[in-house]
UniProtKB/TrEMBL annotation:
This is DUF3168 domain-containing protein. InterPro entries: Gp17-like, Viral_Tail_Comp_sf. It comes from the Bacteria.
Length: 135
């Protein structure tokens, strides 16, 4: 499977199976879509990039993925709480992402003001090192 899609699928699976995350954002509101949120709370699986890196002793992929946390709120309290739950749910490598093993991931988060003033917006950036599983 294409590495960014593989990682995205594994991340969504982790998030919808984490009770702390789903207590804050329903599993049905954790999805891949190209629109502003219409719900009170959403996690949107966003942009991805994959860079082949063959400088290791075996072939690895470097994969970047973005998650967007949207919360209808006047402040960032719930948005930051959800982002922290996501970070905690994604801790712990290595883990399997269908056709790849994730050896490590760096997670960073930025918080942005929605120009319309209706939503708090968190952008979670994931930088993962992945290796393909043997066929």
């Amino acid at each position: 499977m294409e590495p960014t899609l593989d990682l995205q699928t594994a991340i969504r699976t982790r998030l919808i199976n984490d009770p702390t995350v789903t207590a804050l954002v329903p599993a049905a509101a954790i999805l891949d879509r190209h629109t502003r949120p219409e719900l009170e709370r959403m996690i949107i699986l966003g942009e991805g990039q994959h860079v082949a890196a063959d400088s290791y002793s075996s072939f690895h992929e470097r994969v970047f993925l973005t998650l967007h946390v949207w919360v209808r709120a006047d402040d960032f309290v719930l948005c930051k709480t959800i982002a922290d739950a996501v970070r905690r749910a994604l801790r712990g490598a290595p883990w399997i992402a269908s056709g790849h093993v994730v050896h490590g991931a760096t997670i960073s988060t930025r918080y942005l003001r929605d120009p319309g003033g209706e939503y708090a917006h968190g952008v979670i950036s994931i930088d993962a090192v992945m290796q393909g599983l043997a066929a």
